[in-house]
Amino acid sequence: MSTPRTLFEKLWDAHVVTPETERAPALLYVDLHLVHEVTSPQAFAELAARGLKVRRPERHKATLDHSTPTTPADAEGQRAYITPQAKAQVDALRANCAATGIELFDWDSGKRGIVHVVGPELGLTQPGMTIVCGDSHTATHGAFGALAFGIGSSEVGHVMATQCLLQRKPKTLAITVDGRLPAGCSAKDLILHIIGRIGVAGGTGHVIEYRGSAIEGLSMDERMTVCNMSIEAGARAGLIAVDDTTIEWLRGRERVPQGAAFDAAAAEWRQWRSDDGAGFDVEVRIDASEVKPTLTWGTHPGQVIAVDAPLPAAAPDTVGALSYMGFEGGAGFAGQPVDVVFVGSCTNGRLSDLRDMAAVLRGQHVHPRVRMLVVPGSDAVKREAEAEGIDRVVIEAGGEWREPGCSMCIAMNGDAVKAGQLAVSTSNRNFEGRQGKGARTVLASPASAAAAAIAGCIADPRTYLDAARESADSHSPAARVPSSAASTSTEATA
Questions:
Q1: CA-CA 20 to 30 A from 454: which of 27, 33, 98, 412?
Q2: Regarding beta strands 422-425 and 440-443, do their DSSP bridges make them parallel or antiparallel, or are they unpaired?
Q3: Do 333 and 282 belong to one domain?
Q4: Is residue 482 within 8 Å of 356, Cβ to Cβ?
Q5: pLDDT tens, residue by residue, 163-214
């Protein structure tokens, strides 16, 4: 009888070309390499300098996202790149893809968007794959039972030339979340709660597998949010086992097999889960019922508190972050003034995220002090959101509705928080200066971000969700209350 294996061990074993030794890492085959304009120019240049070709161009897919402006093109079709360097990165990717035969989702493709949004929505991301990208949040794709992680620019070139990658085998960490998320809490609240529990180094050297009834109850969009932020706990990757939710989400996607071929693929995909009795190096258990709307208060994703909790007291391990954020230790967190609200990113830029935001924002108005930016994660998300009228909800409330892109998450495209301003952001990192030099960032769910935009300060989204639910019950059957407002999740149709 074979020894029970974890999902990670199955994925690793299926892709090892040359096993690891004490003196050398394993050689791992890569099924899919996702490419964007920022981390790829050096790799393409290295291949050209050495006279090397892209070994399997069909295994590489490219899109424009990081340096792209989120304002529409002008009447002449010109786009407002923040710097000539940003435009040069886009032009270089276009030229490099044309020269090497790599498919590019360009401005006019209708398929462009943030790399970790378009990969899944097109069905390029599939269970059982190894997936890499020159971007740390590649862990997103682990929601599909795929081993997915970020790589550096030199590794990008290596994957292009060989379709393989040298890797040391990580350890395994099981995070089991049982129970049900309370009403008003989302996957973003859950992953912030988890990171707060295990710390920003809690997953270092490990691949995390998220398990348990609460994880099984999440939609695919929500699972992607959880896996996306695995890197913020120090992990190499995040994984969730394949189940019916995975299969049905993939059914009919453009790049998956169709008809009988899909059913055959789905039968194979179901193997991508841990065996009963498989052992993990570390195990952590979380009670979902303990989760509240959770936000960061400091300068890394592990510095989190519930929205209704006081800020931590000044101490050697908190005073620096409190000072940078302009917060007084022990003061109330709710009520802290907000200048900017950003809804978007590969963490929370999907259709269900925008629905959650709109459910809070509908019929309300953005506080006069606040600038609110809403940026869909892809062209497809933008079209579907506009078909539902979410763009009108944002505009009528006084927010800005933008073109898809990474936007304010990374602030290298013209969308930035000014020095000293406090931003509530649905993105994934709150390091000093992440959203602009001197910017202060609070990470939050789409619902919490919308609540802050309305109140002009850190606010509990449950107040607005309760009001929206009451209004929907009594006046507006068509009004949408987000999945996070209920005790069960619903799937987006993106």
A1: 412
A2: parallel
A3: no
A4: yes
A5: 999 999 999 999 999 999 999 999 999 999 999 999 999 999 999 999 999 9
> What does the pLDDT look like over 105-157, one tens digit per residue?
999 999 999 999 999 999 999 999 999 999 999 999 999 999 999 999 999 99
Residues 90 and 143 in one domain: yes
Q: How far is CA 113 from CA 217, 394, 410, 415, 477, in A?
A: 27, 20, 15, 16, 32
Give 13-65 as a DSSP string.
HHHEEE---SSSPEEEE-SEEEE-TTTSHHHHHHHHHTT---S-GGGEEEE--
| CA separation for the pair 105, 92 (Å, rounded) | 14
Same domain? For 159 and 62 the reply is: yes
> How many domains is the chain built from?
3
Structural contact between residues 214 and 178, judged by C-beta atoms closer than 8 angstroms? yes
334/460 same-domain check: yes
Alpha carbon distance 225, 220 (integer Å): 9
Q: What angle do CA 473, 477, 478 make, to 5 degrees?
A: 135
Q: Are 141 and 65 in the same domain?
A: yes
**Do 162 and 208 sit in the same domain of this protein?**
no
**Which residue range is the domain that position 445 belongs to?**
295-482
Q: Rounded to the nearest 10 degrees, how much is the dihedral formed by the CA atoms of 198, 200, 203, 208?
A: 80
Structure token pair of residue 450: 């919308």
- For residue 218 the two structure tokens come to 């999440």
- Whether the Cβ atoms of residue 397 and residue 365 lie closer than 8 Å to each other: yes
Distances (CA, A) of 135 to 132, 224, 351: 8, 15, 22
Alpha helices in 418-475 (DSSP H): 446-455, 461-474
The number of C-alpha atoms within 13 Å of 461 and in the hemisphere containing its C-beta is: 34
Q: Rounded distance, CA 369 to CA 259, Å?
A: 53
